């Protein structure tokens, strides 16, 4: 194709430098402010020196990322305090969509704790919708937590709250004044001397990591509109789950050390167990559609809860590990199956963790031998384990007595001569 003559109608190519300069100039302020939201706060503020137009853009950025890596001594923390105070002063009450506050090696003196709590309150006043608070004091002392003040949060705009390594007490977890809050995540935190975690609007609750529940009484979790629950009770008294009629999915890992903070469930002298005349966990989980229930050891809480075992009227998918199904005479598994009238799929994770399971066995109830103790809707039964040993064979034998048959492919193994029960396993 011949080159175009001078003066033709073809567009001239812009100079590379001019194109780069124009690429930012043509963007509206709203887009530039959105981009600044992804920068750490210090870098976002530094853009004020780029040009006259950028002088005040950082003040309107809808996101705030306050990240401190902890390098340096106390002077670095002092500089952060000065920067934060000046930034909030100049920023005023400009609205925020998100705020991520992550601080490492913060001193625990009263003045500094008060200062950080004031920053949090200021962010809430800026109508923040997503708030993430993450504190790490000393890598060698992982148990250290940041003390949040005891005043309740008041916000008409907060939708998501993420807390990591904090110390919760007082009224902070009373979210009745946060009508828009739908997601609450608590990780590696202390939950001390509280009556209840309360929210009418909450739809997703996650309490995971090394969390400590302590106090004279069990904490009540009152979230009637909860849809998703992920609960790992690592230390302390297992919280009481109140009725959750909207619950769809629940993943609960029970603390076997609950008895350390309470007593042995078989003891006749425990005043707390005498006062607990109703279910601690199972009643609150009874309306879930999908339930994962595990424990790191045989737990007294599940044993006492099964005395008041509710009807799991909506439960279709259930996963149990060996401590929730295999102890003694399989009374726990029997009780749960008897109270799950619409159960469709049962998975047993035996003597291994999920990623470590190397054997998968699949079965289904035989219509002619199905026990009346199991749901007529039950179609799939899975057994996962690391190795097939006598403990696993005991579980499979119990399932066989309920009329649950396993299909066989490949190698077949019998426990003893004349035994009708046999099984096979398939590598995952």
From TrEMBL:
* Family matches, as CDD domains: F-box_AtFBL13-like
| InterPro entries from the UniProt entry | F-box-like_dom_sf, F-box_AtFBL13-like, F-box_dom, F-box_SCFL_complex_component, LRR_dom_sf, LRR_FXL15/At3g58940/PEG3-like
The segment(s) forming the F-box domain are 21-67
Q: Which Pfam families match?
A: F-box (PF00646), LRR_At5g56370 (PF24758)
Taxonomically, which superkingdom?
Eukaryota
Q: Which SUPFAM superfamilies match?
A: F-box domain (SSF81383), RNI-like (SSF52047)
Q: Which PROSITE patterns match?
A: FBOX (PS50181)
Listed name of the protein: F-box domain-containing protein
Question: Whose protein is this, by species?
Answer: Urochloa decumbens
Q: What is the lineage of its organism?
A: Eukaryota, Viridiplantae, Streptophyta, Embryophyta, Tracheophyta
